[in-house]
Automatic annotation (TrEMBL):
SMART domains: Alpha-mann_mid. Residues 1155-1165 have a biased composition (Pro residues). The lineage of its organism: Eukaryota, Metazoa, Chordata, Craniata, Vertebrata. It comes from Diceros bicornis minor. This is alpha-mannosidase. Keywords: Glycosidase, Hydrolase, Metal-binding. One of its GO terms (biological process) is oligosaccharide catabolic process. Gene3D superfamilies: Glycoside hydrolase 38, N terminal domain (3.20.110.10), Glycoside hydrolase family 38, central domain (1.20.1270.50), Golgi alpha-mannosidase II, domain 4 (2.70.98.30).
Length: 1247
């Protein structure tokens, strides 16, 4: 055949034709058959026929052209299937042991060949490649199974073996000399099989472009001379490797390649549907392995005809340019004889004339950029992503070599770091093309993280790690934040971006909105603090375009900022599972580079587009820099969007995989505490080595887990298990580093041996702690610890239970209800554990709505339309069922004094139940609900498509509720007035949400949850889901979490102290750097006594921090300090000192630890002790304004500070940011929700 599809029959819905692969006919003893000259009479006759009037029906002509390029119809005479002349031809000899296909006989007489022998592979639980019994397995040079071998194709000799667990891509020279056949492979997950391919190119093919064609259900990677050279992905239209673009007379014709084939496709290995859990019985086939001659002229003609058809169909019958395109295509069919290559140049000239019609200055410019979105983990594990990166990027390298104008953009520093570690040759090529301007790193972050759930500090670290990696490896940092596929975007992102050197933002995910269409494609995005970035959403609503005319027209037609800007992005290339651009995509876009007269839409255009004015367009192979420069020049009339970019879909990701959510919150806290204590130890000890390298490793593990399909829980079971292992690594190593820092911090202090109580928050705290006693018992003690400091724990002999002046009272009534009262709030629970009353004692104000109960567990049916782990739909609210099954009566736990508690069991269903302890401490303004979800001996939470929430109907009326976000908070409606309101039926929050009216409110705090909502006056916290795809085990098992309820009327101030002789050992005070004498105990000194005000004044933000950052009780090896000590304090309650860490310059440079071999899960590599530069005595402090107002405050410190200077989030000094130090204080000014960072240079340590 003259040309045929690279994948045989194209898959349904595939866009674009495949490359034209054709065999070269071989005649024994001769080279390729010479073509018959075109007689002058025939040529003149064709010319006359082409000049005849085009008395054609539009539909008929259109279909005629379609059939001329069809891979299905009339392939005996069309451009894709027409033979090159007549006569006999010969196929290459198949290897011994395979039936011959009629060697030396005419093609018409060739007997049918047997079907191609398929290699079959299995997935987890029974993976195996099944091969013939011989050591050398050969693949016939045929098409798909059941089709005879094609004439002239060369059959290849292959050797097959498996990659053992832990084996990675082999370096140059490390390939084995022999690969044993694998008759029954071990049960390995996500493994790969290696094929050694020995080939010889026929001498008759000299002067031709020769390709290796390989089609397999699993993704593949071709290796040549020890280096990866081409990715192979059938779904990604990459089924060939160019052996030579022109075989020379003296070129070697025999070579050996290796092909690594994975047991997964482009989008994993789901059972039945894409997002289904991986199928352990799924089989994979290798259906083609052959040599073929590639005819570039046929390929070009196919691209031209495809685009002309696209123009004709896209513009419809009412448009002049549509007919011009159609008649040009019709002329090409008339002029082009598939059997006569001499006719191709004339046909190509006709197409060039059409596409060469230039437009005017008013053209809409489409900036086309090669793109390959690769999910760092999703429907495949982390180690498979490493291989996906290699397959995709080595293919991009080939395209950049062949097309100097082609530009490829690439995000996610983590993926580039993996390639650097495991494919160093490929990484060097990427650096080379980066210098040429063809490979453009974008994004500036470590991974494309979720935009909702990570903390503010974690988002900063994404940019800190990412931008520094890009600078070190590619010579510059990114100026655009590239996050095309995450599930919403925090309102604090603009400020974080601007302080990390980023002024531009690109995504397309809001095109997925289920209810409302976002009103802009190019606009300014303004964050909580007023920071603005230039944002652009590609109007084509995709990051995986194919370069078709339909997509180009859609990009122009759907632009919602017509008249404001004349530029838009067009990201082309297969994505999600990798793949990236193809040569056909590049060729299409080159052809459309400057095409005049294409309208945005027409009345008969597809997809119901509305009619618009005719405007020409042009396509540029461009870069992000050129795009945003052009958008900035048109920015004078752009609109501004203020606040979060809320995705009206995937609301279930705030709750799915509760264990991952808890691990994320806990590890964020651990790394915060380790950095803070290590910084204090560095400041106070001349011998302490700050663990910079270990902390970088641990942070990178956490940032890896914050990828938008991991922390959200929308991943397969294997990824979730790997994520939990990462969290366990962070916990284990983090606690080790925490103990080391505590040891160094109190070294040399006088005092008895004992325990150290550490406060890592920037305000004094008075709380009840359970302290260990001899014999393993614990006693409750009320302790006060200064801000960011420590205090010695009371001696065990003094831990005698003494009743406080205002203790907690616990009373159980005869009806089984229990009342807890600490003098600040009074809590009443009915026998089932529901909250019937919550009263502020001082004012008598009731917080629970009349006739309702709080702490009501509610179960919903949770069946989305498709995206199981991702979506919870609004109709789930119609299935509300209160959980009323009681498994045990309410019982008193702790009987009062320092703490009072009651507990109960609740049967959720036949398979699931929970136990809960309701706890109230002395002096605490909130009641805690410590919850364990468990079942019998076998199962725990074991549901299917159910959604568990807890509700608190409040005696509060407000149209807005407040939710904590990164470095601040925002308000969302509690009503459903508009579609924009009711689309927010399920939202996200971090540590707290609050519903307040004037003078009173109710706050709901939590330690590990993110899904939330307030409808009317009902506060609802989302607890557990039970989706079944892509992880059938998501959320199954045991869960433990705590939430708390805090009524408030305003600020709590200290009314009067307790008697001057406290009856409990305690320390308190804010005297930074000096010993703190014992002082009277106050009832939670910062939170006692009501005064009218807001939730900010009431201390809700501080209470939520305290719930999430418990006081640390650490052993003091050797003498413990005799007095309390504080390192930092802030004069304003509106300002939070969020982070204290060593400046990045103090860490050992050049160390970028990798993931490890791709066959092993990524883990942190922790050396026994990190090296630290002697000059690394510079700390970074990060503070933010939390109340939403302008604030002047003082930062107090007891550390030996030599210099203080403001810096950005990348820790670069502000040249005008020097801060004078006055009496160990720094004056700082904040605007609402502003984040400020400063560098503190410490004095040299004493000898």
């Amino acid at each position: 055949p003259r040309g045929f599809s690279a994948a045989g029959v194209p898959r349904k819905g595939a866009r674009g034709w495949k490359a034209p692969w054709t065999p070269e006919p071989l005649v024994p003893g001769r080279g390729p058959r010479r073509q018959r000259p075109w007689p002058s009479g025939e040529r003149s006759g064709r010319a006359a026929m082409a000049a005849a009037p085009a008395l054609k029906h539009w539909r008929t002509t259109l279909e005629r052209v379609e059939k001329f390029v069809s891979p299905l119809y009339f392939t005996d005479c069309n451009l894709r299937g027409s033979p090159l002349g007549g006569g006999s031809r010969e196929s290459a000899s198949p290897p011994a042991g395979w039936p011959r296909g009629g060697k030396g006989a005419a093609s018409s007489a060739r007997p049918p060949a047997p079907p191609a022998q398929a290699l079959r592979g299995q997935l987890p639980g029974g993976r195996a490649f099944q091969l013939p019994d011989s050591r050398e397995a050969s693949l016939p040079g045929g098409g798909p199974a059941g089709l005879p071998p094609r004439a002239g194709r060369r059959q290849l000799r292959t050797h097959v073996g498996n990659a053992q667990r832990g084996a990675g891509p082999r370096a140059k020279g490390e390939f084995p000399s022999g690969l044993a056949p694998l008759l029954q492979g071990p049960h390995l997950q996500w493994w790969t099989c290696w094929f050694r391919v020995e080939l010889t190119i026929p001498e008759a093919w000299v002067g031709q472009e020769v390709h290796l064609r390989w089609e397999s259900d699993g993704e593949g990677l071709v290796w040549r001379d020890g280096e990866p050279v081409q990715g192979l992905t059938k779904e990604g239209e990459k089924t060939s490797y160019i052996l030579t673009d022109r075989l020379g007379e003296g070129d070697p014709r025999s070579l050996t390649l290796y092909v690594e084939v994975a047991c997964n496709g482009l989008l994993g290995a789901g059972k039945g549907t894409m997002i289904a859990a991986p199928d352990p019985e799924k089989m994979f086939q290798v259906s083609r392995a052959e040599l073929a001659v590639f005819h570039r002229d046929v390929h070009k003609l196919l691209v031209d005809l495809e685009l002309l058809l696209g123009v004709a169909k896209g513009l419809g019958e009412d448009n002049q340019r549509s007919f011009q395109a159609l008649y040009t295509a019709n002329q090409i069919v008339n002029m082009c004889d598939p059997a006569q290559p001499e006719t191709f140049p004339v046909a190509q000239a006709l197409a060039s004339k059409f596409f060469g019609q230039c437009g005017g200055e008013s053209q809409h410019t489409i900036h086309a950029m090669g793109h390959c979105h690769i999910d760092t983990a999703w429907l495949w594990p982390f180690k498979e992503t490493v291989r996906k990166c290699a397959r995709s990027w080595v293919t991009a390298v080939q395209l950049m070599e062949q097309n100097p104008e082609f530009i490829f953009v690439c995000s996610q520093a983590q993926q580039l770091e993996w390639v650097k570690s495991l494919y160093p040759g490929l990484h060097a090529r990427l650096q080379e093309f980066a210098c040429r301007g063809q490979f453009v790193p974008v994004g500036g972050t470590w991974v494309e993280m979720d935009g909702n759930l990570p903390s503010g500090e974690a988002m900063v670290r994404q940019f800190l790690q990412g931008q520094n990696f890009f600078r070190q490896e590619f010579g510059k940092m990114c100026s655009e934040f590239w996050l095309p596929d995450t599930f919403g975007y925090s309102a604090q992102l603009p400020q974080i971006m601007r302080s990390c050197g980023i002024r531009h933002f690109l995504t397309q995910k809001l095109s997925w909105n289920l209810v409302n269409s976002f009103p802009h494609h190019t606009f300014f995005w303004e964050g909580l603090d007023g920071s603005r970035v230039l944002a652009h959403f590609p109007p084509g609503d995709s990051y995986g375009m194919q370069g078709s005319v339909e997509e180009v027209l859609k990009t122009v037609a759907k632009n919602r900022d017509k008249g404001r800007t004349n530029h838009s992005a067009f990201l082309f290339g297969f994505g999600d599972g990798g793949g990236g651009p193809t040569q056909s995509m590049v060729d299409r876009l080159k052809r459309l580079r400057n095409t005049d007269g294409l309208p945005r839409v027409s009345r008969t255009a597809p997809q119901g587009w509305e009619t618009q004015a005719v405007v020409s367009l042009r396509v540029q192979l461009s870069s992000p820099g050129r795009l945003f420069s052009a958008l900035e020049s048109d920015s004078g009339q752009l609109c501004t969007w203020v606040g979060e970019l809320f995705l009206e879909l995937h609301n279930g990701t705030y709750t799915t995989h509760a264990q991952i959510k808890k691990g994320n919150r806990e590890c964020e806290r651990i790394l915060h505490d380790v950095e803070l204590l290590s910084s204090l130890a560095l400041a106070r000890s001349a011998h302490f080595l700050y663990p910079a390298a270990q902390l970088q490793d641990l942070w990178r593990l956490l940032l890896l887990n914050q990828f938008h399909d991991v922390v959200t829980g929308s991943c397969i079971q294997l990824v979730a298990e790997e994520a939990m292992c990462h969290y366990e690594d962070i916990r284990s190593h983090g606690n080790t580093l925490l103990s080391a820092a505590a040891t160094a911090l109190c070294a040399g202090e006088p005092g008895p041996e004992g325990l150290l109580i550490v406060n890592t928050l920037p305000w004094k705290r008075t709380e009840v702690l359970a302290l260990p006693r001899p014999g393993g018992a614990h006693s409750l003690a009320l302790v006060t610890v200064p801000s960011i400091g420590y205090a010695p724990a009371p001696a065990p002999t003094s831990l005698q239970p003494v009743l406080p002046q205002q203790p907690v009272f616990v009373v159980q009534e005869t009806d089984g209800s229990v009342t807890l009262d600490n003098g600040i709030i009074r809590v009443r629970l009915d026998p089932t554990g529901c909250l019937t009353s919550l009263v502020l004692v001082a004012s008598g104000r009731e917080a629970i709505a009349e006739g309702a109960v709080g702490n009501q567990f509610v179960l919903f049916d949770d069946v989305p339309l498709y995206w199981d782990a991702w979506d919870v739909m609004d109709y789930h609210l119609e299935t509300r069922k209160p959980v009323l099954g009681q498994a045990g009566t309410l019982a008193v736990g702790t009987e009062g004094g320092m703490r009072g508690s009651a507990w109960f069991l609740l049967q959720i269903s036949a398979n699931s139940r929970l136990s809960q302890e309701v706890v109230l401490d002395v002096g605490c303004p909130y009641v805690r609900f410590h919850t364990e979800v468990a079942g019998g001996r076998v199962v725990h939470w074991h549901e299917a498509h159910k959604f568990l929430k807890v509700e608190f109907p409040a005696r509060v009326r407000s149209p807005q509720a407040t939710y904590e976000v990164q470095f601040g908070h925002l308000q969302r409606p509690t009503h459903y007035n508009t579609s924009w309101d009711w689309a927010r039926f399920e939202v996200w929050a971090h540590r707290w949400m609050d519903l307040s009216e004037h003078g009173f409110g109710l706050a709901l705090l939590n330690d590990s949850k993110y899904g939330a909502s307030v409808r009317g006056s009902v506060l609802s916290l989302s607890l557990l889901r039970a989706p079944k795809a892509p992880d059938a085990t998501a959320d199954m098992g045991r869960h433990e979490f705590t939430y708390a309820l805090m009524p408030h009327e305003g600020e709590y101030r200290v009314p009067t102290p307790l008697p001057s002789e406290p009856r409990f050992p305690t320390v308190s005070g804010e005297n930074c750097g000096s010993p703190l004498p014992p002082t009277p105990i106050f009832h939670n000194a910062s939170l006692c006594g009501p005064r009218p005000g807001s939730f900010q004044d009431a201390g809700v933000i501080r209470a939520a921090y305290s719930l999430n950052f418990p006081l640390l009780v650490l052993p003091a090896p050797g003498p413990a300090p005799a007095a309390a000590w504080s390192a930092f304090s802030v004069s304003s309650p509106a300002v939070v000192l969020e982070t204290v860490k060593q400046a990045r310059g103090g860490a050992r440079r050049g160390r970028d630890p990798g993931l490890g071999p791709p066959a092993a899960p990524p883990t942190a590599r922790l050396p026994p002790q990190a090296e630290t530069s002697p000059q690394g005595r510079t700390l970074v402090l990060r503070l933010y304004e939390a109340h939403g107002g302008h604030v002047d405050c003082w930062l107090h410190t007891s550390l030996p500070v030599q210099e203080a200077v403001l810096c950005d989030l990348l820790e670069r000094r502000d040249p005008a940011g020097h801060l004078p130090l006055q009496d160990a204080r720094l004056k700082l000014t904040f605007s609402p929700f502003q984040v400020r960072s400063l560098l503190l240079v410490l004095q040299p340590p004493p000898d």
